[in-house]
Amino acid sequence: MEKAILLAVAASFCTATASVCQRIGASSSEATGFDVWLVFRLARRPVWLLGVAAMILGFVFQLTALHFGALALVQPILALELLFVFGYLAVASSTRLRVKRRDWLAAAAMSAGIGLFLWVASPSGGRLHAPGSLWLLSGLVTFGVVVAALAVAFGLGRGASRSRRAAVLGAATGISWGFVAAVIKELSSHLGDGIGAIFSTWSPYVLVAVGAATMLLATHALAAGPLAASQPGFTVLDPLSASLLGVFLFGEHIRTGAWDLVGEALALAIIFAGASALSHSCLILGEEGDPSCLPGQYEVQAQRKQLRVPGYQPAESSSTRHREPGDPVVNVGSPGQKRD
Description:
- By secondary structure, the protein is mainly α.
- The protein has helices spanning 2-26, 38-42, 46-68, 71-78, 81-92, 101-121, 132-156, 162-188, 195-199, 203-224, 227-250, 258-278, 282-285, 296-307.
- Helix 8 packs parallel to helix 11.
- The longest helix is centred in the middle third of the chain and has 27 residues, at 162-188.
C-alpha cells in the first residue's frame, strides 16, 4: 500500500507540473476561436513539450500505482494535483500577486471534497464490456457538452472574461478526460487477449481520436486564461465524470447507504463551496488586473489602468485620492494662478 501511495503522489505532482509547463507555453498564444493548429505551434516550444513529457510520466506513475493499490485508494490521492498546482502558482506569482489564505483553503477544500467523494462512493464491480448503444449515447452527450462549451467560450460568450472562458473550457476538458478514462477501461479488458485481439476492436482507434481531441481542448483551456481557473475542471470533473460513466456504461456499483449518501452529498457541497471561493481567488483576479490582488507598484499601475477605461468611475475624485509613493505631484491652483 505504501508503494501505491508514493506512486500516486508522484503521479499528481507530475500532472501538476504538466499543467504549469503547458500553461507557460500556451500563455502567449491565446486563441479567439477554436484553432486545430494550436498544438502544432506549441510543439515548437520546449517548455510545452516538457509539460507533455510530465503528463506522460504522470500517466505511467498512475498506472503503476493502480498495480500496487486499489482504485479507491489511488484516485483520492490524485486530487492533490490541484494543491501542487497552487503551490507552483504561489511561488511563481509571489512577487506580483497576493495569494491569500482563502485561496489555499479553497484549493484544499476542492481536493478534499473530490477525495472524500471517491472514498465514500468507492465504485466497484461491474462488467468488462459496455453495450454499443450505451457507448453511442455517452459519446453523443460528451460531444454535446464540448460543443456547448466551445459555443459559450468562443461564440455566444465573446464578452466573457479570460478566466471565465478558461473555466468553461477546463470543465469541458475534465469531462472529456473522464470519457477517455472509460475508453481506457474498455481497452484494458482486451490486454490479455494478445496484440491482434486489441487492434481488432474499436477501442484503440477511438482512444487515439478522442485523446487527441481532448488534448487539443485542454490546450485551448490552458491558453484561454489563468491556470487557477481551468485546473479545477481538470482535477475535479475528470474523476467525477469517469465514476458516473463507470456506473452508466459498466454497471459499477457505488455505495448508496443512508450515511454513504450523506457523505457523498457533503463531499459535493465542499467541492462547490471551494469552487465558489476559488472564483474570487487572487490567482484568477490578479491576472485580470484586480488592484486588491496586486502588491506595491503593481497595484498603482492597475488603478491607473482602470482610470483610463471608458465608463470607469473611481470611488473618489483624483483630488482626494490617497497619493501613492512615486505618483507625480501636481499643484492645482486657482484658474488664474500660474502653475509651476
